[in-house]
Each structure stands twice: as C-alpha cells, then as structure tokens.
Amino acid sequence: MNFWRNIAKPIIGLSPMDGVTDASFRFIAAKYGPPDVTVTEFVNVEAALYAPHTLIRDLAYSEIERPVVAQIYGHTPELFYKVAHVIGELGFDGLDINMGCPVKTVASKGSGAGLILKPELAQSIIRAARQGIEDWSAGQTLDDLSLKPALIQGVRELNRRRFDRETSRARRAIPVSVKTRLGYDDVVVETWIQTLLEEKPAAITLHGRTLKQQYKGSADWDAIARAVEIAKNSDTLILGNGDLRDMADVYRRVCETHVDGVLIGRAAQGEPWIFRAKEHVKQALRSQCGEMIHDVPVSLAERFSVMLEHSAHFAGHTQIHSFVGMRKHLAWYCKGTRGAAELRAQMVRVKDIDEVAALLRAYAESLGAAFAANYPPTSPEPHTLRP
Ligand SMILES: Cc1cc2nc3c(=O)[nH]c(=O)nc-3n(C[C@H](O)[C@H](O)[C@H](O)COP(=O)(O)O)c2cc1C
C-alpha cells in the first residue's frame, strides 16, 4: 500500500515543522488547502522509552489529513523497529525518517542530519523501521514488544477517539520514506542518495541545503536535480524542498528539476490555504502553460474566520498545549493586513480565543468592515481530533 504512488504528480505536500505543524495546524491546512500529504512534526523514538505521553501527543491527527505520515528521528535501530509498530497501529499512511534536522542537540547525537555522516547506521535504521512495519502488518502486536504500558494505553486511547475501537482498522505495510539534506558540511548528494537508494525508500525529500548551512543562503535546486537524475531508474520518488514561496515557484522548480513533488514549509505559515492552488500547477504541467499559475486570493473575512477556527481547534487541546503556542500562528496570519505590525504585536500577547475574537472585531470595526459583527462567533465549539 504505497500511497505516494497514488498521488497525481507533482506531489505538493506540507513539510514537517517542529512547533508549527501540530495536529491543529495540519487540520486547518487540510481543511483549507488541502496539501497532497501531511507530515507530523518529528518525534523522537527515545520517547517510547522515556516519555510515552509526548510520543502520543505528537502523533495525534485527524482523518481529513490523509494521507498522513508520521515522522520520527533517533539513532537506535531497535527503537525505530518498535515505534514503527506504534505508527502502524495508529493508522498512519506512511512512516518518514528524519535525516535532515541540523539542530545541535539532535545531530551531535548522530540523529537527524548526523546520520549523513553514518551511512551504515542510516541504512540499518531504514531496515529496522521497515521490518517493524512488516512484522506489525503480519500480526505482531504492541504487547509482544515489552513497550511501556503508558504507551500502549495511549495508542489505544487515540484509536478509540478516532476509530471508536482500540486497534487500527487494517494492518497494511505502509511505505517508509526519508527526509534529508544535501550533506553535512559539504554537498555529498550523489553518494548520499546512492546510499539511501540501496534501501529502496518509497520517497526521499531533499532539502536543498547542507547541515552546515542550516537555513542560510539559498536552497540548491541544481543539486536536487542531480539527485533526481541518480534516482531516475529506481522506484524511489524524489521530492524537492527549500525556499518555495508560492505555486509559481513550485511550477518553475518542477519544470527545471523534474522532481516527483515538493514539500512546502515556511510559506505555509499563516497561509495554510497556499495548497488551494496546487491543482493549477498540475493542470499547467499537463498543458505546459505556466501562465495558468496563480495563487487563490483569500479575503480578510476568511483569513479572520480561519484564525478563529484554528484558535478554537488549538484551544480544544489545552490539555496538550498552552494557548501560548497559538500566538506565533496568529502573528503569521496578520502578514499582509493593513497595520499588520500593530495587530501582530497584540496577537503575540493573547491568552485565549475570546481575546483573539475581541482583537479581530476591533480591527474589522476600525476598517468599517461588515464582518466585524461576526466576532466573537456565536459559539466557537472546540474541535476535537475526530474528523
Ligand atoms: C520551525 C521549523 C521546524 C522544522 N521542523 C522540522 C521537522 O520536525 N522535521 C523535518 O523534517 N524538517 C523540519 N523543518 C524543515 C522543513 O521541513 C523544511 O525542510 C525547511 O523549512 C525548508 O523548506 P521551506 O523553505 O519550504 O521552509 C523545520 C523547519 C522549520 C522552519
């Protein structure tokens, strides 16, 4: 069951962003985009041993996100094997291994982009994750793995909420993919891609920078194109990633590099509807007419209404997140509005959805906008993680 193959190319998905693409943001992106695929924030496999509640918290998702992929990171193959069972049991459509995180605390331990320096370990991790998925799909249960009882309970609870039953609906061998960078200090994409291809991942997403670059400079799409060339006779899809600002950028990069798809990260911050225009790209590529690419405009009224809906969804998870985590999203949503700086300064101090609604109403009234009467909404029902 390789969902990657069922998506019309180019695949245009939401890139995982720790602290950003949580369950609420992904719900909103899926509702107002949707992207072709969503990926969770990365989750440390060690959490299975030491902090099962964080693993469960970060692996919550809603049905409308499908296909939805769980991203994990670490440096211990045995833990990838075990967590692969958890991901299968939770009903994810795919498992992605992070081999690109440049953060010192991650990479210095040999996880994330640190794995670029340890190709054999990287290969063992892919094999362990795939074996975990295969054994789970063949019938092995979480109880067979001596996992923490809190982890098993957490999985059952999440499944009960989503499926109305404790176990996943069907056991299927979901695809394993990798997200990585061009190299550690230097670009070594040619050898690194070969190493990964030996393990036949379903897809590789390449962020066009090295670890050393972090987020500096520009993404090197020529290097991504070289990876596409190397992988062209394999069954692995190559997705490009880095600095895509809008669908016109996506169209250009797909034409130039022939990637099978892209993941969009920062451009979706405060713009979850960016994916609305993805069909324009697919259509333009079919008809070879780049002039068809334009982003779908979003009215101020809709922007504000999404801000409230996102806040309500987020607030529905206050047992998981404090509302503080919503502030950055609210600030991003202000981008491009008149007097954005002032509105943003107010949004980064809000404590709850009532304050958000009051600020939006005052702002809309100051513009004389008729939709000011919509705020606060009659009753913002907190959303649950159910579809
Ligand atoms: C705040 C933040 C958090 C990120 N967290 C993750 C992560 O958890 N997993 C991952 O693979 N990449 C992560 N990334 C990298 C992005 O997925 C993406 O590769 C990078 O931002 C380049 O794409 P962009 O230019 O479209 O943003 C993160 C990036 C940002 C800005």
In a few lines, what is going on in this structure?
The chain contains 15 helices and nine strands. It is of the alpha/beta class and 387 residues long. Residues 378-387 have low confidence and may be disordered.
Keywords:
alpha/beta; binds flavin mononucleotide; 42% helix; 387 residues; 15 helices; globular; TIM Barrel
Verbal overview:
The chain is an alpha/beta fold. The protein has two domains: 3-292, Aldolase class I (TIM Barrel), CATH 3.20.20; 300-374. The chain has 15 helices and nine strands. Strands 1, 2, 3, 4, 5, 6, 7, 8 and 9 form a nine-stranded parallel beta sheet that branches. Helix 1 runs antiparallel to helix 12, helix 8 packs parallel to helix 9 and helix 13 packs antiparallel against helix 14. The longest helix has 19 residues, at 119-137. The protein starts with 10 loop residues before the first strand and ends in a 21-residue tail after the last helix. Mean pLDDT is 92; it is low at 378-387. Bound molecules: flavin mononucleotide. Flavin mononucleotide is lined by residues 15-20, 41-42, 71, 98, 100-101, 179, 207, 241-244, 264-267.
